[in-house]
Amino acid sequence: MKITTSPRKAAAHALIMVVCLQLLPLNAAKAEDPLVEQAQATLNVLNPISLTVNGLIDNAIKKGDSALQKRLEQLNGIIQSAIFNLDQALRNRIDQLNQASKDRIAQTLSGLTDSLRQLDQIIQGGIEGLDTRLASRIRQLQTEVGNVVAGLPVPFDPVLNVGEEGIFLVKQEGAVSSVFVTGAGLFKKGYKPQAWLILPDGKRELAVPASSMGLVEVQVPNALSPDALQPTKRYIELKLRRGGWLIPSYSAPSFPVHLCGRMQGYSVTASLSASGQVWERRVVLHPHQRDNVKGYGKGFYIETNNKPVRQDFCAIPFDGWDVDPEAPGFDHGLKVTAEDGGGYHDHGSAGTGCRFIYADTRNGNANAWAGDVLVAQKRLVAKNPCSQPSQSTALLRYGLTQVQLDVQASLGACVAGLSMDPSYNTHVEVRDPNGIVLERRDVRLGQSDRALGGALQIRVNAQGLVDIDLTPLCRRAP
């Protein structure tokens, strides 16, 4: 059977084939463009470094090293600028630039990638001495990133890379704290960006000591950031030059900035208390004694009446009290104040916690006696607290604060291994600079809890060591 096709359909099929054949080389070129691959490779180096630097910023804040914190914030701004601008370039078809532009960008990317690898080795060395190791690298990295960004296509309107939540800043030492704003097209035609802090009573102009195409440094006076646990939310407004040569025009984007204080004067008090059982002890007269024996109020007395006689007596429990075999000065809970007799008599031990008195008629009638026989007793009673709590106070700071409490001192007279083991509780109070309690938490030994909206973690080990780990709320925000 022969299949025929109309001339119109045949022409349409031919046109589709021509278009497809023309598109295939273009798509293949895009996928294999060396500059695209090089830019993506640089991003692959930048992203893990960014994660590491953010962790180092947290550590610097926790250590209270404001100088290193600021240097790392600057480094992070440079890295974020490079990431954002390279990502924007890849989205905007960097592969369609002319070859001369591609060559310039490729050359700057090559130098930047080498510097990033060296930077990665530096920051992997840990936080100790990092400020010194970074000092000579940041300026070089900033120059190389600036060269890369300058070679990329510039958007007509400035684009900020701050996200919906804005920027979160922990107050730095000194009079001002630097906010590093990243984006694309932030510095055009020599116009230096301007910045204002939006306050409830108006606007305050902020210093802008440094700016480039991808990074603007804005300085916020520390006096405007209260030293409080909760961040203060404000807005920063920028004035940035737009594209176009003939008639200058400007954009005025704004974004939230969350300012965290430095935790000055806050304190934490931890106290460890125990509840459990203690031995209550007493010494009483033996309940089986008679009254008025040989000048003693109570005692045991026997006489022969023409036949030998013996009496044994032991420490015994009664009235809900047990014998206290460890009582000092007692024989397993028994003590005889005095013993004697007339005629032939004897006295001595009748076993553990027992005595005997004896008399017989070998020398005629006789007697024997023991006066004021005492019994040592004990019983378990509940006690809460077992003793005065073990307590310690420390200044609260970002990072780890440790407080050692005395478990044995808090136990006092309470005894472990009885019908009820002691129960320990650590009471933690966070106070502001005026001594006002902000939050209270009760934590068992070997357990943990959180306070201050999750920023403060409290851990208590079995030895009474309290770990109080405070992370700035600004750094915890997304």
Largest sheet: 9 strands, mixed
Q: What portion of the residues fall into strands of 2 or more residues?
A: 35-45%
- Count the beta strands: 25
Low-confidence stretches: 1-31
What is the CA-based Rg, rounded?
Answer: 43 Å
Mean pLDDT figure: 80
Span from first to last CA?
69 Å
Q: Overall 3D geometry? A: rod-shaped
Secondary structural class: alpha+beta
Counting DSSP H or I runs of 4 or more residues, the number of helices is 7
What percentage of residues falls in helices of 4 or more residues?
25-40%
Describe the structure.
It is built from seven helices and 25 strands. By secondary structure, the protein is an alpha+beta fold. The longest helix is centred in the N-terminal third of the chain and has 30 residues, at 34-63. Mean pLDDT is 80; it is low at 1-31.
